[in-house]
Design brief:
single chain, alpha/beta, binds S-adenosylmethionine
Length: 267
């Protein structure tokens, strides 16, 4: 296990505590198991007390990028051993983490931001931990898709999260055509430099008049929620390209949307 360089120090100093507003709190010991822990999507105050408890008490914190997670842990005075677990080393590290669970360790799993497993690493680890009979305990918290949904002003009773759409236009349009008739608010993650193209594809495939939202930099200094039709948002994103992290949402189909024949033609 490629333990973080100061892992040994972390075990000795301050382990088992977290600090909030200068108050040092002792974390209760954790039962063995895997703890997927949601962390902030920008504003470091958006972390739950339970998340801090688990991060402060875990034997090991598995994270995408140790530098990113260290910023959060430092903010709350938490010193635990960190190990990198990301797409490029997952196949190698997963057996080691599973072996740790078998030895009775408690392992917190975090990603760079938001909820692990949601367009982030962790699914295979959770699956294999469960298959091996280990306990998996979710520690819920922020996720960009829900933050965007509640700020969007679009229906929330039924929604479909589509993750990241394909970066190639043809595949993206095909996927959009599949989602297009679903009677739900659609939610996608997108990189800022592709947002204008994706919105234009959405307008072409889902209908130019369909209500939509571009939410960016949520919980951060330049938080912005742009509302409009798909056509208007596509034009806007072309004129003023969004910067930072972006979520795109599309309202459910109404009478202006493509009927089944149109969708067949598009597919
Ligand atoms: N696991 C994370 C979650 O629960 O939201 C998502 C990780 S995914 C790799 C990163 C994408 O989430 C970004 O490209 C963006 O689409 C979205 N995202 C993350 N933070 C965001 C924020 N503060 N504002 C808007 N979108 C955000």
């Amino acid at each position: 296990m490629t333990e973080d360089s100061d892992g040994a120090n972390a075990r000795e100093g301050g382990a088992g505590h977290y600090t909030v507003d200068g108050h040092k709190v002792a974390a209760r010991p954790l039962e063995p198991g895997l703890y997927p822990v949601a962390t902030p999507i920008g504003n470091l105050s958006d972390v739950s007390l339970r998340a801090l408890e688990v991060l402060a008490a875990a034997d090991l914190v598995a994270c995408e990028d140790t530098r990113v997670t260290r910023v959060l842990l430092d903010r709350y005075g938490i010193r635990r051993p960190l190990v990198a677990y990301h797409d490029h080393n997952a196949a190698r590290e997963r057996p080691r983490l599973l072996a740790g669970l078998t030895l009775g360790k408690s392992i917190a799993l975090v990603s760079d931001a938001g909820t692990p497993l949601i367009s982030d690493p962790g699914y295979k680890l959770v699956e294999e931990a469960l298959d091996a009979g280990h306990k998996v305990v979710p520690i819920p918290g922020p996720s960009a898709l829900l933050a965007a949904l509640v700020a969007a002003g679009l229906p929330t009773d039924c929604f479909l999260f589509g993750g990241f759409l394909p970066s190639r236009a043809g595949q993206r349009r095909q996927k959009l055509a599949v989602f297009g008739a679903v009677p739900a608010t659609l939610i996608f993650y997108e990189s800022p430099h592709r947002a204008a193209d994706t919105l234009a594809d959405m307008a072409a495939v889902l209908g130019a008049d369909r209500p939509a939202v571009l939410a960016r930099e949520l919980t951060k200094r330049f938080e912005e929620v742009r509302r409009g039709t798909l056509a208007a948002l596509a034009d806007g994103a072309r004129e003023v390209p969004p910067r930072g992290e972006v979520v795109l949402l599309v309202g459910p189909p109404g009478e202006h949307t493509s009927d089944a024949d149109d969708l067949d033609a598009l597919l």
